[in-house]
Amino acid sequence: MKTLLVTGASGFLGWHICRYPLPGWRIIGTHWQNREGIFPKTEYLKLDLTEKDFIWKSLKDIRPDAVFHLAAYSGTGYCEEFPEKTRRLNVDASAHLAEMCADRKIKLIFTSSEQVYDGQKSHYTEEDTPSPKNEYGRQKLAAERFIGEILPASAIVRIAVLFGQASPVARSFLQQWLETWQTFLPVTAFHDEIRSFLSGRSAAAGLFQLLQQDASGIFNLSGEASMSRYEFALLAREIFELTEGKVIPKSQQEIEMTAYRPPVLALDNQKIMDTGFQPSHPKYELKALKKEIFLPPGFSEN
Ligand SMILES: NC(=O)c1ccc[n+]([C@@H]2O[C@H](COP(=O)([O-])OP(=O)(O)OC[C@H]3O[C@@H](n4cnc5c(N)ncnc54)[C@H](OP(=O)(O)O)[C@@H]3O)[C@@H](O)[C@H]2O)c1
Question: What's the pLDDT at 299?
């Protein structure tokens, strides 16, 4: 049995990784403030990644064969507002972790973001030059560069916007929409923000695929199709049979945002598909999710 250390296991994606583990791998997940965010029965430890000595001690005690480095300040607005605080975790701690993994010859898989791209072309491949337009994207790119230099055998995964089952402490934008429809209020969604939405479960599968293949380098990881948030909302409403739910299309310019968000960020998945990863269409991901999510009173499930 090999050991996988998952930093940020108490976050949204960490929940899915611990929920759908890879056979033959023991998972130890780290949390910081929210232990209850760790999927039940997963082994865990509390780790503040901004404390270099704690990282070192954890790696020495646990002796993992691989690390999935998820822990981050993942909100674009929060990174924009607090660049110094967020850089300490998103960039500095990531670089420290990479140094220690290099020292101990541990495989590192880092979760970066589609936000490293500028939104100026239709489909991004890993060959396209990143040019982030917000602080979060700049931090992710800086971490990528440190990690790539320190540990060339690492895998860096640029992930699209995630949705899926909520954990007790972390959820995706979809939960907010379902709750809004439940109270018979309209959901507002951008018609001009295009993304390649991916479920947390599929993202976990993509990361495990890279681990199994011992892949290194940069990989995009997204769902099968790109669509606007508005189209995604209509699809979710249809699949969840929330026919009374209203969706109001808006343009990005109509809503003030703390951080700039590139309007079109669609990812080309070919490179990760060549490793054996199969992306899914959001339609099928949402159908699978519908079976898992408790439906609001007043709405029936077929
Ligand atoms: N969700 C998405 O749509 C998406 C898309 C693309 C890329 N990503 C990337 O994928 C990764 C996971 O995203 P996510 O949505 O699961 O993030 P998340 O829900 O915001 O979780 C962040 C995690 O980081 C941990 N953390 C915060 N401060 C820490 C510290 N000082 N030391 C150690 N851990 C700390 C949190 O622990 P506590 O909660 O216990 O404090 C939590 O487990 C991130 O790197 C994110 O940038 C996410």
Answer: 45
